[in-house]
Amino acid sequence: MKLHNGSLYWPQTVSHVQAYPELQDTITCDVLIVGGGMSGALCAHTLSKYDLDTILVEKRTVGSGSSSANTGLLQFSNDTMLHEFIKKIGEEKAVRFYKMCLKAVDELELAAKSLSKEVDFIRRKSLYYASTPGDKSKLKKEFKALSKHGFPVDFLKKDEIKERFGFEKPAALLTDGDAEVNPYKFIQTLMEDAHHNGVRIFENTEIEETDRDDEYVYFQSAHGKIAAKKVIYSTGYETIPFAKKLGAEVNRTFAIVTTPVHYLNHWEDKNLIWETKRPYFYMRTTVDGRIVAGGLDEERMEAPSSEEMIRERGQRLLDKIKEHYPGYEMEVDSVWGASFGESDDGLPFIGKHPKKENVYYLLGFGGNGTVYSMLGAEILKDLILYDSHPDAEIVRLDR
Description:
The protein is α+β, with helices and mostly antiparallel strands and about 400 residues long.
């Protein structure tokens, strides 16, 4: 499956990427992680702190799949608002899930600060604006739900948005506790540090399960074999046949990175910006003054292959930025289209396989993939070490 097409920006920001060997031997381990994207990297980094013999295999190269098309917005608010989740799954579970996401952003910060290299992790607030006057009522409901349960949020009126952000919208929520990151730098450094701490990493190694017994699950690659006591599948949007059974689908989206903007005036504190309309438009800045923007989601699984289409979507995204900030001088520097997954109920799929012993999944489907990957790494670590986690039931595969 082709996960992205176009000119990716983030790999251009890393001058040297560590290479890992292809599997050539017969080896054993306590935990095997299948997939070398953001989910796999966070699992490897988390498990590397414990006395677990861990192996990670990636069929391409580390961070080259969907994660290299990640736009690096880290938010606790979801595509499904808290008050909508309360209606769907009940108040207690909905609030617990939102608090899990908020905690995960804190854990991502701790992980980023512990790394051996800078990954451009910066805490930001998020402006979530009403796309139309009719959406003000949604934001008022969401403000009430977030405030009731102690989430850091302010309600901004039209004149406050204009004064602080420079554009006019009917109303907005300003939430605290979010962040941005360079996702490619983050993945590569998570992997390097996990490898330094003893995690064995193999690239260009596609494996398949061949057998199992009471102690091990057995895998074969073109040139090697692995016997693993436990296995985590963090294979992202390529786990589609299994994910469809769970209740998920894959669509595609588009993103751009602009040339540097010399004066980002009227954009308060370079906060993250997104909207209530679905599919939604969103934007953030980079450490060197560029703007990252995304949206224009389409209900098609494969990443777009037409360069002309990708360029046209890039221009539309640039036009959207200029609707907000007509005074900014910038052009499209990088533009790409990529596949992304969404679950039917808005929650990720994390936990034990309902029928196979010692098999776990971390599928962070949704707009908050990196946040889901972090909370998933913590849940799976506890399930592997202690066979329980207090919040595992909310995101379990057979919910």
